[in-house]
Amino acid sequence: MSTWYLDISAALKLVVDEAESRALIAEIDADRPALASCTLLETEMRRAAHRIPALTQRHVTELLDRIDLYTPSAVVFAQAGLLPGTHLRSLDAIHLAVAMQIGVDNLISYDRRMVEAARDVGLAVSAPR
Where do the annotations place Mg(2+) binding (predicted)? Predict the structure, then answer.
């Protein structure tokens, strides 16, 4: 079984109807990967629920129950700080460092800067459309 890492831009598409939602859900249904992310995703998703009227905390909980969440260690935080890229944001760097540490097969993101940074460190990236 392969492992796909979801960032916030991908995870939101699983609970909020967006342009790419159906394509992402179809690929997950077809490939049946294990879904993974960093514990930061919980904070990001729960904050998004405050901004997006259609997204409830219950939806967030139900999604998070389907994702293996990894807690970054001090080493991961240090590695995240050392990743290349002048436009790589701190939270994205932590997500990338966790994805690298757990050895994911695919990182799913719809964020241009995250996609570029992931490719720069050698991760396979996709954004089903």
Answer: 7, 92
